[in-house]
Records
---
Amino acid sequence: MIIISIALGIILGFKIIESPKRMIDRMMMVHLCLFVISAGIVVTVNRTFIQHQDFIYIDTKRAHPLTHFMAMGMHGNGGYYRPDGAMDDKIKSPVARNQANVRLIQDRFRNFNGLTNYGKFLVQKQINNTADGTFGWGQEGTFLQLNNPDNTKLNRSFIRKMFANQGTVQANENFEYHFIVQLAWCSTLIGLIGVVNLHSWKIQFLKYSVVGFMLFLLLFEGGRSRYVIQFLPIVLILTSVGSTRILMRIWRNN
């Protein structure tokens, strides 16, 4: 929600700079009002539910600060790092916990020995963030179990051959599934090329949102394509527009 709000703010800022007398058109103002109202309702309902639910006890003092996820995003491939979580769990004070993570960020940045190496790390992390079209399917252990996993007849079906291996999700051992999904993901990314030269404020808003999410994954915990799922709807909207433009251009040329 924050990233989308920032993207919308940037669009509004450019609109005001572009035509300060007109400020913003009426339709854009309507969309802005609807967005603000919808966001307010979602945030209010979410906070109210959390404050009044009695399913679990939530101790906000034990929450990980943003600096925790930033420090984690600077280690290894930028993904989850269990020792960082263990360190935070041992520190009871929220202030001390945040300070410890700030020191960890500083140490890890120094270990890169300059902006050049840190830039190389971010390039590789971006590849890790977006390269896997399966979004990590089957890479989190064997916790995704199918019903009747030992059923020979079901295991021979097309669906199970595509998504599982002997009743258990195992994408790494299933070349057919990985190939087809990767092909679909590459087609999705190619479709984004079709919106590069579109300048309407709606498309610009979506593009800035995608860039914002990618920057977020670069600065914080990431390193795995499964994190793309959270802004995949925006990507799919853009690629549908871009793919349509590409196909129409090919059709006209033929």
---
Amino acid sequence: MKVSYRETIRKSYTQRTKFKKQSGGHGQYGEVEILFEPTKDYSQSYIFKEKVFGGAVPKAYFPAVEKGLIESVKEGVIGHYPVLGIQATLLDGSYHSVDSSEQAFKTATMMCFKEAMKHLDPCLLEPYVILNIYIDEEYLGDLMSHVNKKRGKVLETDSLDDGLIKLVCRIPQVEILEFAIDLRSITQGQGLYDYHFDGYEIVNDDLVERLLKK
């Protein structure tokens, strides 16, 4: 089982960045001012908006700015995982009638993102799963205790036929990497389980290093 971590941001920040390169003939020029904000919606990596007035950045370059954003969110700064839950709003910038190009604005955006991340309080996201455990009633207390120790939460318990109990939990995926072994040990080989993905949650800062090592 592979744990798919992600990254996000916790603060908002406006960054202005200029990319300028001169190398004979036409140069490269693009400047962007972008407001980065957390959306707390981890079902998508980014939302791109623009609020540019007066043609400071021509509309023709908006797609290039978004392309720069698409490239940027592929890799965060904590564990180099993809970034989720960011809104980027292009507010302002500047261009050169000769030296500006799509590539220049794409590069300027990528530089802007990298600089802004220093101020956005980036953090790690970990996947959570819904874990369904099927056990004899006599093992219920031990399993509930085990789930709590693993940073999980028991959502409900249902009585099934033949004295079986269904235990429904929400738990970090990393904490069930060895669950088959744990369950076999607790129930003397009698328990069954299944699980499915249930979204991402921010990891407490004091746990990040331990989880990345794990």
---
Amino acid sequence: MVQLWLIIAVSVVAGVAWKLYRYPGGWEYAFGLKYEDHRNALAVARGKLRAWTRAMNQSEAAARGGISSVEKSRTKRLHELEQRIAGLRNPGRGDRIDALGELTLFQRVLVVESATGSRSIAVASLDVRFEPGSKNHSVYCTDASGEVYRAKYPHHPPAPDLEEQRFDEDQVRDFVVKIQNAIAQENTFRARLPRQLKAAEAEWDETMADTDALDTARERLQQLQQRNRADPRGKAAEAEFTEAALSWKELTGRTPPR
């Protein structure tokens, strides 16, 4: 109960202070019936000016929002093109396709894991062939420089325990086919790459140079601001408040806030 009365008291004090601020000059001018018409005249003028100012600010804020929207769209497109250009310049490994034994196939590289370490062979221009053997099936990988790597897939004798893997011929042949298909796709990608990169770079340049939409949005805001400054409704509201504020100052000796 005490807290409720405290809240009410604080609210009343705040309301009184606010009215004294809005209608400066003392208690009688802010609350007395004698000056009610003067307060009403000031309140009406202030309301008209604030309504006009609010409408003007809202219209200009919408125009600024249009500028921001165009800027964000343009920035987003430039970022997308930059990512595409970066991806074309440095495609990386690409997605993982499959793995068998010591070879792991990605879209653009073949990773070899051996006792001496790991190495990556570019899939582009790679030559791969399969050869069966009595104990080991072999996959020969010849890179663009002519260097050959042999991956071994033992199939005989049967593995003495489950941890030692064996590979049948069809399994290895199917994996080689996947490598060959990846090579074909990568060679096609590399053949198209210069043209795609050139097109992406040209589009970035065009997007960067094209400021028509942004210029139009900025011009729309400038024109709106000019119209608002010249609008007779705004001038009338400003004049009415200035007259009411001057009248109040002559009455009280204090200038009221807008």
---
Amino acid sequence: MTKGAAGMQQIVSELFRLANHSNAPGTIAGDIVTKDGVLTLSDGHRIDVVIDYTNAGVLSIGVDKARCFTLKDAVRITGAKPVSAVSYPYVEGHNYDTYSAIASGVDVNIGKFTAGEDCLTEIHLVDVKTAADFVMKNKLELPAKNMPVLKP
């Protein structure tokens, strides 16, 4: 996160490599990178799904709960703070518990979907500038944090 957009690109590239995905990041907008199954990281934690929205400034990561990494620990490590119920590009349900940490132009959103769940299940990396540019270029009206509000 402290490396900004370059650090985010490094993470994206490494996840594509681990998934043996032949396409370059940003070329498969909205597609699932992990079609061949779960990715096991070097520390033993597993990633269920990686969705590439990097052309819109977002990488979405689903974390497997089999080896629980608690949301509480993720919040402690990242210094993330609670955020409102809407976070670009996802509209979250009432059970979604979201935290955000922003540094060097990258917003790291972490959270969980299920009430009473302790495990981290979602990570969204957002390049704030790229996402803002995408929102403006495509004239999207999102009630989203960190995004500009479109004026009529």
